[in-house]
Amino acid sequence: MRAKLRVMRQLTRLYYAGLLMAFATKSSDPIADLAVPTPDEFRARVASGELKPVALETRIVLGKMCLAAVLAELRTDGFEEALRVCRDG
Q1: How many structural domains compose the chain?
Q2: Residues 6-63 pLDDT 10s
Q3: Could you say which of 48, 61, 72, 86 is the most buried, measured as most Cβ atoms within 10 Å of its Cβ?
Q4: Strand, coil or helix: what is 34?
Q5: Measuring CA to CA, which residue among 38, 61, 26 is closest to residue 53?
Q6: 45-84 burial, b for 16+ CB within 10 Å, e for fewer?
Q7: Single pTM value for the model
Q8: Distance separating alpha carbons of residues 67 and 50, to the nearest angstrom
Q9: Which domain holds residue 23?
């Protein structure tokens, strides 16, 4: 069950990353810069007013943060094992 939860968390993050970025972009131009703030930096930027909670830019940043979290998890020890457990049962 833990392996399934670990994999499903990443699929959920990937889903939300796609939704946030798809609905927030104004054109079909690709997003080339995938640099993201840390969660603490993000909260500070919102608190300071640099990022507005409902702004398109904020949604793009959140989408990129979700994507960065997925990519980071894919590189962790044990994720391949979790995928194997899910695949093989």
Answers
A1: 1
A2: 999 999 999 999 999 888 776 667 778 889 999 999 999 999 999 999 898 899 999 9
A3: 61
A4: coil
A5: 61
A6: eeeeeebeeeeeebbbbbbbbbbbbbeebeeeeebeebee
A7: 0.84
A8: 22
A9: 2-88
